[in-house]
Each structure stands twice: as C-alpha cells, then as structure tokens.
Specification:
A hairpin with a 2-residue loop joins strand 7 (144-147) and strand 8. The chain has 469 residues and is an alpha/beta fold. The longest helix is centred in the first third of the chain and has 25 residues, at 93-117. The protein contains 12 helices and 23 strands. It has helices at residues 71-74, 77-82, 93-117, 125-132, 227-236, 250-263, 278-288, 314-319, 338-345, 364-370, 402-410, 425-438; strands at 6-11, 21-26, 32-37, 63-65, 89-92, 135-138, 144-147, 150-156, 164-172, 176-182, 206-212, 240-244, 273-276, 306-309, 324-328, 351-355, 376-379, 382-385, 389-392, 414-421, 443-446, 451-455, 461-465.
Length: 469
C-alpha cells in the first residue's frame, strides 16, 4: 500500500527566519500537487541572499497555507507573486487582517533599505495588493476542501491573534490517508486571549507533525525573569530604558506589563512611556479598538502616561534628558525606529537597552549581545562605544519551550513522524534527540534545504537529497 501515493516535505529555511515548507503530493495516477506552508522573509544576515533566490517555480505551486502574520512567515509572498505565483492563499480571518498591514510595512522597510543601497526593492505595495487579492480568510476548526482529496483545518494557537496550527488531511481512494500537522510558531497560551485546546479526536489519528524548535534547547523552568528588576532599577537610577519589541504581540504585552507596574506603584505615573513604530502603533490601536477578540479583563492594557511617537516627534524624545521608557520596533533592533534610538543611547552609561526576545544572527540585537561593555560596535557604518547596559530575556517569548512542546507531542497516540524545523541548527539537534528519547515516535527527522522526507500512508519515511521544483 502507498507505493504510488506519498508526500515529500522539506524546509527552505535553514534555521529560524524565512519560514517556508514546501510539500509535494504524488498520487498513484502520477498527478502531483505542490503547496507551501508559509513563505517568510529571511532576517538573518547570513541568509538574506535567499530572499531573492527562487528554488522553486512559483507557477507550479497549487496553493499556500499561512500559519500567522509575522513577516518571517509571510514576507516573501509578494515576491513570489511578482514572479508568477497566482494560486489561492488560505489563512485565518484575523491573520488576513494582520497580513495586509504587515506586508505593507515590510514593503516600506524594503523600499527604504533599497533606496540607501541604490538597488531595486524586493517588492512593492502593488505586489502586496496583488497578494491580498489571493488571500482567503478561514474560521478555526472548520475543515475546508482546498482541492480534491486535500482537506485543511486551522486550529487556534497562542502565538499571536489569528495564529494557527494547520492540519492537512491528504486522502487517496484505496491507498489510505496521510495527516500532516504544521504547528507553526507554537504556544499554548496568550495573555490577551484564551487558547482553545485541540479537539480530542486529533490525538487518535495516525499523524505526522512538523514541529518548531526555536527554544528546543530550553525548559520553561530555566527562564530568567529579569525584565522587571532590570527596568525598575534603571528607572530608580533616573535613567532611560529603551525596549526593542516586535510590532505584533510583543509591544502590546510589554505595554500591559508597564501598566501593571504603574498600577502597583512600582513605576511612577509621571514617567512618560513612549511607543514608536508605525506598524506596532497601528496594531496596538486595533487591539484597543476591539478589532480582535480580547479577553474582557485585558481590554484596558495601555499605560496611563503613554505617548505615541512619530518621525516628527522622535528627535525631541531622544534629546529629552528626563527619565523615560521607550518601547520601539523592531524587536531585533535592525529596523524601524530602534535604528535611531539604539545609536542615541548605546553610548549612555545611564541607559538600559532591554531586548525582549530572540535576536537572530547578523542582527543589531545579536551584535550588541556579543559585544562586551566598553567595546565598539558598528551601526550603519558608524562606530559607537557600548557604555549602556544591554540586557536580554526570553520570558516574553511567544514560542513554547522544549518541555511544553514535549508535553504537546506526548498527547498523540499514533505519532508516526516528527519533523523538526524553525530553529538554529544546535537547537533543532538537541530537540530532535529529546523527542527520540522522551516521546518515542516511530521516526524523527530534522528538516533542511539539503534533503526532503518522503511520507507514505503506513508512516514509513526516508530522507532524500533535495530536489527543487
């Protein structure tokens, strides 16, 4: 059984950013179907050249599934559209809302970067419009027939509003069924909304899971919850706190925490809290104005003394010597207003620059992490001496840690295969070994660009040298 019916799965992203899984289905009549799960922008410096690389023919792709609206998962969709992709894109209704503004923001950033480098941008706002015309918003827990023999269901995921895990059920008469579950960026909780549990019937299915491994090396008990003491200490010293954040999700969580600290009297309400970043502010206002279903007790999440900043008022914020908090995009420091604030404060011994999540290799956040205090760092070609305190925390990460992901996998009663992706090489290797030891599925593999895994209805799989479309 299954000799003429199989599925090939591979990842086009070597590590974290640029998420893109490509799946080829082969039916006994030799018909083939090709689809993508995500098509993100590479943000790691060493992989940025992949953004303009097409290792498949976009015209050969029959449809695309999107797990959520972060640019490292959707940021290349306008690019492949400009190269001939014209098939449907399926995602959740909330992700569709987020995609439009996230991709337009990405197009603006790419345009400004290309202008500085005197090259053509990867894509334009016109390409974004073309993509959005292909997007279909779907509800959670409602199976949709995307093609004959291919059923797709989106399930709630705590990573972000609209974020999903995606079950792809591929059937073939007389041959059986192949179930693929793509976890996306998985999290079982979110401070702003309740995360629905997977329906119990899924755990009884023979299944193959494509599982992220961003924090595959860390247990939740190992998190150093240092953010509050670090921020409070710097405010007590009368200094400035700069907090680089991701626009979608992280900015809003940090603002909520700062409001709690205000209400508890830990942060004086006369200290201004500035927020900067077009996309982050727009998404914050969408959350505040009820465009997403926020828990009732979380609707009032903005600090009392919040000040919205734009390009015209930013210089005044930077030159203001008073104690203050600045919450700014981007989360890794390499884009957005953070590119103005970090150079302004990195040489200030009475400043704290506090990153709130993962910083990819080649980003400004990683560069500052690796530099010792007193060393010089280069930002846009200019040398700055690192005198400010620079701190990092993973306590706000919207990704589950290794122990939480292991607990998730253990719930499945007929787990044929786990393919590990979306993590630095060492993290994927550590997590894969742990899955083998603690979960004991029939097979475990690590996805990459060099090979693909072939999956048959009876669960057997083999890895083969990659072949691009």
């Amino acid at each position: 059984m299954g000799k003429g019916f199989y599925v090939d799965v591979m990842a086009l992203h070597p590590e974290v950013t640029g998420s893109c899984n490509i799946v080829t289905i082969r039916f006994p009549n030799r018909k083939k179907v090709h689809f993508l799960v995500d098509c993100g922008l590479f943000q790691d410096e060493k992989y940025k050249s992949y953004n303009e690389e097409l290792s498949f023919n976009p015209q050969n792709i029959d449809f695309c599934l999107v797990t959520h609206g972060h640019v490292d998962h959707i940021g290349r969709l306008p690019f492949i559209s400009s190269k001939g992709y014209s098939a449907p894109i399926y995602t959740t209704e909330d992700t569709k809302k987020i995609m439009h503004m996230s991709l337009n923001d990405s197009a603006r950033v790419l345009r400004e970067s290309a202008k500085r480098k005197k090259v053509r941008p990867l894509y334009t706002e016109s390409d974004v419009s073309d993509v959005m015309n292909m997007v279909y918003g779907c509800g959670f827990n409602r199976p949709i027939q995307v093609m004959n023999n291919i059923e797709v269901t989106f399930f709630n995921n705590g990573h972000l509003f609209g974020a999903s895990m995606i079950l792809v059920k591929i059937s073939c008469h007389g041959e059986g069924v192949i179930n693929l579950l793509f976890t996306g960026d998985y999290n079982k909780k979110n401070v702003f909304f309740d995360v629905d549990l997977l329906p119990s019937w899924i755990y009884q299915q023979p299944i193959n899971i494509i599982q992220e491994a961003t924090y595959g090396y860390m247990n939740s008990s190992e998190i150093d919850r240092c953010f509050i003491p670090n921020v409070v200490k710097k405010i007590e010293e009368g200094g400035t706190v700069v907090i680089p954040v991701f626009s979608l999700g992280r900015m809003q969580e940090i603002l909520y925490l700062l409001k709690k600290l205000e209400n508890q009297g830990v942060i004086p309400k006369e200290i201004p809290i500035y927020i900067d970043g077009k996309l982050g502010i727009r998404y914050t206002l969408m959350c505040k104005n009820g465009e997403f279903k926020i828990r009732e007790d979380m609707q009032d999440f903005l600090p009392d003394n919040i000040v919205f900043v734009d390009k015209s008022t930013r210089p005044d914020v930077i030159t203001d010597k008073r104690c203050k908090v600045i919450v700014t995009t981007s989360g890794m420091g390499s884009y957005g207003p953070a590119q103005s604030y970090i150079p302004a404060y990195i040489t200030n011994a009475n400043a704290l620059i506090h990153f709130t999540g993962y910083v990819a290799e080649g980003t400004l956040g990683r560069q500052l992490k690796e530099a010792k205090k007193g060393e010089s760092v280069t930002i846009r070609g200019v040398l700055y001496k690192k005198r400010a305190d620079v701190e990092y925390t993973s306590e706000f990460s919207a990704h589950a840690k290794a122990d939480e992901m292991i607990s998730f996998l253990k719930k499945f009663k007929h787990l044929n295969l786990v393919l590990v992706n979306h993590g630095e090489t060492s993290s994927k290797e550590i997590f894969a070994r742990r899955i083998e030891k603690e979960v004991k599925p029939r097979n475990v593999g690590i996805l990459g660009r060099q090979y693909f895994f072939r999956i048959t209805p009876d669960g057997l799989s083999t890895s083969k040298t990659s072949k691009f479309l």
